[in-house]
Every structure is written in C-alpha cells, then in structure tokens.
Amino acid sequence: MSRPGNKRPEYHKINRDLFVLTYGALVAQLCKDYEKDEDVNNYLDKMGYGIGIRLIEDFLARSYVKKCHSYSEITDLIAQVAFKMYLGITPSVTRNESSRNEFSLILDKNPLVEFVEELPAGRSSLCYCNLLCGVIRGALEMVHLTADVTFLQDRLKGDKVTEIGITFLKKLEEKKYRRKK
C-alpha cells in the first residue's frame, strides 16, 4: 500500500509529542536530583552538547548543505534548515549591527515547551530548554567553530519572545589551498 506523496505520515507528530513529554519528565527529574538551577542548566547543556556532536553527521548527510563562508550563512542555515528539520519550526535571525559574530534566533514557537505553562515553583533561574544551546554548541564545534550559545530571553520567564544568542568566538578561517606544481 502506498501513501500519497503530499501527505506527511502521522508518526512524525506522535514522535515529536513523545519527545516533548519525555523531555519534560527529564527536566522534572533533574529538578528533583539537583537543588540548584545552575546544576540543572549545566546538565542540560552537557546533554545537548553530546547530542549535537552526534547529530551533526545526520544533519550533514540529510541536508546536502554547501560550505558556508560567513557567520551569517551559518546562522541562517541553523535557523532555516536545522531547526526546521529536527523541530519543525523556523526561527527568525537577528544580527547585532555592531558585531559580525553575534546573532540571535527568535523562536515564535518552541516545541519543547508545548505542554509547559510555567517554570516549577522556586526555579526562577532554571533554563528549561538549555538542551538546545548545548546541541547548537556541540554541532558547531564538530565543524570547527567555537561559539557561546545562551538563552537571552525566555517566554517561560515572562519575556515576550524566546531568544537564543549565538556568539562565534573563533574567527572563521578561509583557507586557500594552492595547487602544487
């Protein structure tokens, strides 16, 4: 039996919902295991980093992207291809006008908080989605780009938008190889 070419299978939605619910249970368990929000945030970042260093291979194999020549191209690729591919959303990109290496991803919709209305009581400094920062940082490091990735704003903390800041720390080197004669 074949399915119509324009219909997306329903199991993608089920898998995303399962992931979001499992992620919520993970964060809840970490909040029980660690007293300090900083420890939970660090653990989520470390987990995300591990995912990112493994996920980059899948991303490169499935996306067929070409080599990027600027931080702007890399950030657009993260927003328009990677987020769409793995989370089904496309964040908008803003650039810091005074710096060529600072960007922000604005998430109108964050699937990780789909079933979350507010942070747990007494956890005001918890960065619930810090896993995303680790994923981005880990993936970038695997392609030899060092970056600082942090949440700048979070709707769960009462901000108007969810914003992830990316600051590239290592200068993008454009090596020109000379052909030996």
TrEMBL record:
Signal peptide: none annotated. One of its GO terms (cellular component) is cytosol. It holds the Pfam family TRAPP. This is Trafficking protein particle complex subunit. Homodimer. Component of the multisubunit TRAPP (transport protein particle) complex, which includes at least TRAPPC2, TRAPPC2L, TRAPPC3, TRAPPC3L, TRAPPC4, TRAPPC5, TRAPPC8, TRAPPC9, TRAPPC10, TRAPPC11 and TRAPPC12. Keywords: Endoplasmic reticulum, ER-Golgi transport, Golgi apparatus, Lipoprotein, Palmitate, Transport. Coiled coil: none annotated. The gene is TRAPPC3L. May play a role in vesicular transport from endoplasmic reticulum to Golgi. Transmembrane segments: none annotated. Belongs to the TRAPP small subunits family. BET3 subfamily. The keyword Zinc-finger does not apply. It is found in: Endoplasmic reticulum; Golgi apparatus, cis-Golgi network. GO terms for biological process: endoplasmic reticulum to Golgi vesicle-mediated transport; intra-Golgi vesicle-mediated transport. InterPro entries: Bet3 (IPR016721), NO_sig/Golgi_transp_ligand-bd (IPR024096), TRAPP_component (IPR007194). SUPFAM superfamilies: Ligand-binding domain in the NO signalling and Golgi transport (SSF111126).
